[in-house]
Amino acid sequence: MRLSFLWSVVAMSLLLCASVSARERDSEGRYHLTDDEKNTMLSPAQRAHLLDIMGQARNLADARRASKHHRRWSPNNSYGPAKIKCPGKPQGDNFVGYVRNASDNKIHPLEADYMDRHRKAIRKQWKDWLNSVNLGGNDGIDGGLDQFLAQHQPKLGIGISGGGYRAMLVGMSVLQGLDGRNGTAKQRGVGGVMQLADYMAGLSGGSWAVAAMAMNNWQTPQNTTQFMDLGNNLVLPDKDTMSFYTDLFNDVDDKKDAGFPVSISDYWGRAESYHVLDPAVYPSRGQNTTISDYVNVTAFEDGTGPLPIVLSIGRDFNEIMINQNATYFEFTPFEFGTWQPDLQAFFPVGYLGSDMTKGEPTKNNECVAGFDNLGYTIATSSTLFNGAYTMLLEDNVTSILGDIAKSILQDVGKSNNDVAPVPNPFKEYTAKRNQYLKADFIDLVDGGEANQNIPFEPLMQPARGLDLVIGIDAGTDQAGWPNGSSIVETWKRSKNPEFNYMAFPNVPDTNTFVNLGLNTHPTFFGCNASDYVNADSALEKMPPVVVYVPNYPYSYQSNTSTFQLAYGSDEVQGILDNGLEVATMAGKIPDWGTCLACASVLRPLQRAKMQVPNKCQSCFSRFCWNGETETKSPEPFTPPTGPPPFVLSKGHKNVQPPHTGDNESSGFDLGDFMDSKDSASSVYAPMSMMVALMLASLVVFL
């Protein structure tokens, strides 16, 4: 009996944790796995064992379901959403029932109220930081900081890229280098910037970082990693493995019993919740924790925390390939929706899952609460799963168990369980070009599948009016390191006429990024307010300066595999320490804090027609991209551990780092995916159980 089909099932489950993958696809978007790749990841013996486990898991799932006698409906104690009476309708001319028409390019009143409260709460921190980097005083900002901040306080956003646990850890590590509570970061001039952020956006693995930081009250990144239990594999916990899976199935069954379609994203999201939420604060491990619960976090109540945003992509019905202009959907603690001109509409995220038509409840004032589960929300942004099942069905499977598995994948393909389905709140809502007009569900996929791996989209919106956007890139474009392709892809997208309302800075090609070493250190784009795509047509004539911050091995080779789902304590600490060096450039450039401050105040000063301090000119001459390109193919990018040439030259040398030849791409490895760290446990049997239980669960709800 051929077992390659069953290996492919495992491969599809593995793909769930990825962001943008380098694996090639065919014209229909299907992943192709060679026999060598299959044998590397699961041996024939392991595949045979998987068949045996599948049979056991199917029987276990059937027995569990047969013994279930009641449903848990309350959104307060269950993963399953609950039916409730709809709240009062929002008031305003731009609301159609519960749907907010965002064509006026304004943020929701609740978001506006929070931003007003938040910005007042952090004003003193702005003053303290700007003073600490010498932008106050006689040779600083004209008129003094009090007057400047009262009228022109900068607006700051931070975006964290995708890339699994690597992206989560790299993102948090850079935040550690910007954290005012970190003594080294403060001494080097950039500590405190994290506390000045108005928005924090993440996609794929970056959304895990945002969720972990936000929902745990913005603890220090160092403290946050202490409860995340990263040495315990995300899908293969060392202890109570069967209990872990049983709890997952019970939770997901509650959602299914409540009448909602479930997908592997539900299991994935529940597993993620066990790591991103502090069990001391969330003893149910996120079973009933929603993204809208952020309003109960202390940092929200006192206005000190940034507003978290999770970014996903809407996949068109029957679409396999995700095109560059795909619709981005964002989750905030207030809303779910999109700014893109074809819809430009939002719905209260706390009532997502409600059956709506033309913005009104379809059933007698009946709404739903609890669908916006935090784990499911971040799972919608980290589900790279489209297209593979079509290829897998080409295998000739003849056994009974094989036919069961084949029927699962056939149904997954037909019912779109290969994505994260969200009940469509915009059904029959009239917009310019509502592609979801008749759709019952919006199918969400990995936020990085359009190759824009940094979540710039929500941060560049004119409605939010940001002055500075810091984009953290943990991509693995070239030998496991970023090469600028993420920001380049966003630049390409912005040139489409559909997006002419939103400006984006001009950036060079990826070859130039590598040849000039722009992928080795923070670089400013858009210092010249006219050097933007859509500079004339954009609604915001002074769009944000973008600070591109790529992952680089200052002190540690942090280009780990996207598929590595367990990290030992030494690895975690190595990445955290390296990210601090990335954010502070190892303390080698004494005026780096001043330069970042100059970038943050540049737009407000330009908008107010105020003079930019003279000391900023030196900063801009070193950190702003000056338009130079070098498009020849670069040498292999395998940098040595240590600061790059730009940093060692104190910002005067833009070249590619030396080629070591010993730092190849940290691509997929079975051991990375299956191993737990700090543990000697056996791995392949639990892995088989995980996949088998997932498949068996799908059989149950077919």
UniProtKB/TrEMBL annotation:
InterPro entries: Acyl_Trfase/lysoPLipase, LysoPLipase_cat_dom. Its EC number is 3.1.1.5. It catalyses: a 1-acyl-sn-glycero-3-phosphocholine + H2O = sn-glycerol 3-phosphocholine + a fatty acid + H(+). Residues 631-671 are annotated as: Disordered. One of its GO terms (molecular function) is phospholipase A2 activity. Residues 85-630 form the PLA2c domain. The chain crosses the membrane at residues 683-701. Keywords: Glycoprotein, Hydrolase, Lipid degradation, Lipid metabolism, Membrane, Signal, Transmembrane, Transmembrane helix. PANTHER family: CYTOSOLIC PHOSPHOLIPASE A2 (PTHR10728), LYSOPHOSPHOLIPASE 1-RELATED (PTHR10728:SF33). Belongs to the lysophospholipase family. This is Lysophospholipase.
